[in-house]
Design a protein that fits this description.
single chain; 8-stranded mixed sheet; binds zinc ion
Length: 285
């Protein structure tokens, strides 16, 4: 199993090279294209003959309160424009709302999830980067970049990604899974958490497993990653071997953690997530 080809939705690689990000400094193509219209973690799409499509051409008519379009790039040679409409805006005739959130039963095809994820990240960045985080002055776009610069104190910042580790712990023919109290009954998943200042990824794996379920791990191995635009995580996937200790659950984070026989793992994360990818590829007997 190569870690270099994790074609999961939300990874740009999922678009198989057909997406070209907007060129830094290049002229933006103007006029018609395909439209990523985001409304509160949904995309507005055209229901086609058994296949949903992005609205194309000029900006769809009837979008109430749409934000100024941003150019994301081109997909299959066609410009992809991003705009956002308010949560309570009416959906125009001919379009329907589809969720982008896997945990809410996303049905969109992987390419639209990936484009929609990038659109949400671009909008998130626009909505959070308008003022300097150091002095509060209104920022200006750095020409040809997503980055913003402060005209008062010259602080520059660029879109943020937050690395988080996610790990399957194995001990021979059993796998360690955990669940949070708020999850659906019977659902278990992998231990995961954000990387702290000063930590390497492997250090974060060791610490998270120790903190959340109380055991030690060794032989930590990277197996793939997934961009997770809710709003801006980079999930870095690992497998690790059990190295000792008894399960002791951090009750603030988790409700339960236990060993399951490989091949008999409970219902868990859906097919859209790297957690499922890791369980399917590394959690089998
Ligand atoms: Zn400033």
């Amino acid at each position: 199993m190569t870690p270099l080809s994790v074609y999961l939705p939300f990874n740009r690689d999922c678009l198989r090279g057909a997406f070209e990000p907007a060129k830094r400094g290049g002229p933006a193509p103007s006029g018609p294209g395909q439209w990523l219209v985001v409304q509160d973690q949904h995309l507005l799409v055209s229901p086609g003959d058994g296949e949903v499509r992005l609205p194309s051409g000029d900006m769809p008519a009837g979008l109430q309160g749409a934000s100024a379009p941003l150019l994301l790039g081109t997909y299959r040679g066609v410009p992809c424009w991003v705009t956002q409409v308010p949560r309570d805006a009416a959906v125009p005739d001919g379009l329907t709302r589809e969720t982008l959130v896997p945990m809410r039963g996303a049905q969109l095809p992987d390419d639209l999830l990936s484009l929609g994820g990038m659109a949400m990240q671009a909008l998130w960045w626009e909505s959070t980067s308008g003022h300097c985080p150091r002095c509060g002055e209104r920022t200006e776009r750095i020409p040809g970049e997503w980055g913003k610069k402060c005209p008062a104190c010259y602080y520059e910042h660029y879109p943020h990604l937050h690395p988080a580790v996610i790990v399957l712990v194995r001990d021979g023919d059993r796998c360690l899974l955990a669940r949070k109290r708020e999850w659906a009954p019977g659902r278990y998943a992998l231990v995961a958490g954000f990387v702290d200042n000063g930590e390497c990824l492997e250090g974060a794996v060791e610490r998270e497993v120790k903190e959340e379920v109380g055991v030690d791990v060794k032989d930590i191995r990277y197996v793939g990653s997934q961009n997770w635009p809710f709003p801006s995580q980079l999930m870095v996937g690992f497998i690790a071997s059990y190295a000792g200790g008894e399960i002791r659950v951090d009750e603030e984070e988790l409700e339960d953690a236990r060993w399951f026989p490989c091949g008999q793992l409970p219902t868990g994360p859906g097919r859209h997530s790297i957690a499922r990818y890791i369980i399917d590829n590394y959690g089998q007997a």
